[in-house]
Every structure is written in structure tokens, then in C-alpha cells.
Amino acid sequence: MGEFTKRQQQPYRFDTVGSFLRPARLKEARKAYEAGEIDGQALRQVEDEEIIKLIHKQEEAGLQAVSDGEFRRSWWHYDFMWGLNGIEKRFIDEGGQFHDMKTRAETASLTSRELDGHKHPFVEDFKFVRDHKSTDREVKQTVPAPAQLLQELLKPHNQETTQAFYGEDEHRELAQAIAKAYIDVLEDFAAEGAKVIQFDDCTWGRLVDIHLEDYPEDERQAKADEKAYLAGLYRYVNNLAIDGAPEGLTITSHVCRGNYRSHWFGQGGYDSVADELFAKEHAQAYYLEYDSDRAGGFEPLAKVGDDRLVVLGLITSKTGELEDREAVIKRIHEAAKYIPLDNLCLSPQCGFSSTEEGNSLTEDQQWEKLALVHSIAKEVWG
């Protein structure tokens, strides 16, 4: 084994994507709150107590960056969007389509042309973890990527509300308003001591799922043009926020193909988006799904360059079955053909509970997965 750089901040050689299965006590408290049996203060108390327990468990598991497990959220993305001034929660007719399943039918919609991100509730959530972790640990804070909000506002069910404030030819202006709100939030995170913020981004997972060969030949060019336009737009809004972040704040990106109760929505390798995502986006590290053949090969990692890191999501968070240790190690070395081994880290492929429902595994299996990641990381990088 060679000499490897000791990681001083996220991503660490042994890392997570962020969310954890909600404990039964928390689920029961949330149901009681929704039924009007307890108030918000009582729910917050249960959340606080369960998050403190989770922080201790993460530290005992050897994690250097610890999170609140997203225990206060219902969704991995909407709760953040709803916390921005100028965005509201709205119920719609149908949820999003995943493989063999639809999600709950909710969305985030515009209520104003101007967006503002100051005094976001997530900053208070960050402070809680900061104040309860050990001093030698770092806070892992995730938010949906700016591109995720842009994509949401451009979906058909939001067409009417979005076009009340932004015309069809004002996508870049909308992107600028979104980025401005994100920069507000990033400034507030940094003021409270945040060093790293992770953007969770499923927009690329949607794009890689556009397979031109599935379309009639006379429609393929138009679909290719649409895909290229959206890729450029998503990269544009993400870079506006990343480039506008306070000095000293690192932005990483988790790229996902969907994770709702162990179901997924997209499949396809990174090849078709590698130029925009890896060569042109300014994130300092990428957490990438690589737990199934839906993710394709490692060849696109050559576009990342030698100055950024990749966290290989080789351990699935969708099921409880443990991966073969030697097979995972072999895949790490396969990836190292395209990006230096010193620039690689290891994590589960996604969170264990991207929504409050959680994935199809037990809490014990969740921690067994992390123990496997930890032991493999120690063997590979020391």
C-alpha cells in the first residue's frame, strides 16, 4: 500500500451521503404531530434527542463528518426548498414516477419573482449538530443542488406558477434568482462555522436516463438538443452558487439516480453528461453512485481531473445484503485507472432514508453497511 494524503476535511476516505433511517420513536412522534396529538415543540424535543443519539452512533462508527441524519426532514429536497422566501409547498395530482412506484404528490412552487435565503431553518439545524458533536468531528450538511430547484420549477405541474413570474425565455434569469437565494443560505452557514456543504443533485440522473435510441429517428436530434440545453442550464445555476459561495466554504456534489423507499428512477452511465458535470461544474468533490450496472463504467472519471476528489458509492443503501469485500476493493482499483487512488474515497451509494419512509433495510443492517465501508477504506487507504 502506498502513502496517501490524510484527509483533513470532507470528503473523508470513509464517508456517508447523509441520511439515516428514522427510528421508530421519531416516526411515531411525527404521526402524533400530524394527527394534532402533540405540538411542534414536543416533536422538536423528540427530534433533538434522537439526533443526539445518532451523532454519538456516527462517532462510534468512526465517521469524521456527522449529520443529523435528515431526521427533521420529510423529503431530502423539498423541506429545504420550502424554507426559501418566495417558495411554497403545494399539493399536486400525481407524484413523481420511480421504477414501479410513485412518490407522494407534493412540490415546491414560486410565489414571487424575488427569492431570498437568509434565516433559513436549516441553519438552525446545522447549529444543533455543531453544538452536540465532538470537537474533533465536522458537521456534514446537505442541501438539494440549485439545479434541483430549477428543475422542479420547470416541471409541467409548475408551468403555470413559474410562468406567472418568469417567461419561457427567462430560464437564465430564474437560475440567477435561485443562485442568489442559495448564496444567502451559504453565507449564513459559513457565518456559523460550516466548512463544507454538499449539494444533492438528481438532475444529472434524469439526464443520463434520456436514451436517444429509445426515440424515433426523426425526434432524436431535438431530444439531443434539449438534453444539451438542460445540462448547460443545470451546470450554469450550480456554478453561479458555487462561485458565489463565501471564501473558504467547500462545495461538494452528490449525483443520484433516485432513492425513494429503495426504488430508483434513472439508469445510464455518466458518459453523456461528463463534459458538463465533471469538466465544467466547479464542485470540489463528487459523491457518485456506482452500486449497480445502471451507473455504467468508470471511464468518465477521467474528466474529473487530478485536482478534485471522487467518493465511490460502491455499497448500496437500497438493500441490507452486504457486498463482497474483495469485489468492492477490486472495483476501487478499477476506478483508479482513470483517477488517482489518492483522489478516491468510499461511501454508500446514497442515503439510507432520502425521505422519511426510508429504504428496505433495518437499522442494524444500515450500521453493518457503514462498518463494511469503514473497514474497506482502512484497508485501501490506511
Keywords:
6-stranded parallel beta sheet; globular; two-stranded parallel sheet; TIM Barrel; alpha/beta; 382 residues
Task: Furnish the topology, listing elements before pairings.
Blueprint: H1 24-34, H2 40-60, E1 65-66, H3 78-82, E2 87-91, E3 97-98, E4 101-102, E5 106-110, H4 121-132, E6 138-139, E7 141-144, H5 146-153, H6 159-163, H7 171-191, E8 196-201, H8 203-208, H9 220-243, E9 250-255, H10 274-280, E10 285-289, E11 309-315, H11 325-335, E12 344-348, H12 363-381
Parallel strand pairs: 1-6, 7-8, 8-9, 9-10, 10-11, 11-12
Antiparallel strand pairs: 2-5, 3-4
Helix pairs in contact: 1-2, 5-7, 5-9, 7-9
Describe the structure.
The chain is globular and about 55 Å long. The chain has a six-stranded parallel β-sheet. 39% of the residues lie in helices and 13% in strands. The protein contains twelve helices and twelve strands. The chain has 382 residues and is an alpha/beta fold. Helix 5 runs antiparallel to helix 7, helix 5 packs across helix 9 and helix 7 packs parallel to helix 9. It has one domain: TIM Barrel (Alpha-Beta Barrel), CATH 3.20.20. The longest helix has 24 residues.
Instruction: Report the CATH topology name.
Output: TIM Barrel
* Second CATH tier, the architecture: Alpha-Beta Barrel
Indicate the mean pLDDT. 93
CATH class: Alpha Beta
Q: How many discrete domains?
A: 1
Cα separation of the termini: 8 Å
Radius of gyration: 20 Å
- Give me the oligomer status: single chain
Number of H- or I-type helical stretches: 12
Spans of at least 5 consecutive residues with low confidence: none
Beta-strand content: 5-15%
Structural class, by secondary structure, is alpha/beta
The helix fraction, in percent, is: 25-40%
Overall 3D form: globular
Number of strands: 12
Biggest β-sheet description: 6 strands, parallel
Strand order of the largest sheet: 7-8-9-10-11-12
Order of helical and strand elements: HHEHEEEEHEEHHHEHHEHEEHEH
